[in-house]
From TrEMBL:
Cofactor dependency: [4Fe-4S] cluster
Job description of the protein: Acts as a transcriptional regulator. Probably redox-responsive. The apo- but not holo-form probably binds DNA.
Residues covered by the 4Fe-4S Wbl-type domain: 31-88
Subcellular location: Cytoplasm
Name of encoding gene: whiB
GO biological process: cell redox homeostasis; negative regulation of DNA-templated transcription
Any GO MF annotation of the entry: 4 iron, 4 sulfur cluster binding
Keywords, comma-separated and alphabetical: 4Fe-4S, Cytoplasm, Disulfide bond, DNA-binding, Iron, Iron-sulfur, Metal-binding, Transcription, Transcription regulation
InterPro entries: 4FE4S_WBL, Whib
Protein name, entry field: Transcriptional regulator WhiB
Cofactor note: Binds 1 [4Fe-4S] cluster per subunit. Following nitrosylation of the [4Fe-4S] cluster binds 1 [4Fe-8(NO)] cluster per subunit.
Organism the protein comes from: Streptomyces cahuitamycinicus
Amino acid sequence: MIERFSPPATLPVMHIDTITSPELEWQQEALCAQTGADFFFPEPGSSVREAKRICGMCPIRAACLAYALDNDERFGVWGGLSEKERLELRRVSR
Ligand code: SF4
């Protein structure tokens, strides 16, 4: 069983979905699942430094970033990259 956090910008309160797809089993090692989603979906203009620090220690960082890019995740820090950094990565990858 995996908890997935959706950004508060898209939902009125923190929302947790249960994902059981075997394709997402890598998320069981997610360090952010142990810290909570607040660091990863900060208010606009807030620092993402702590989220990036946690991502830097996460054993599934590459898979997380690939998932975010493949699924066009628009909000929050995924795989150690902010929303703006993922947009820039997409732009230069075209
Ligand atoms: S890389 Fe960061 S956002 Fe992705 S699973 Fe790990 S801690 Fe969470």
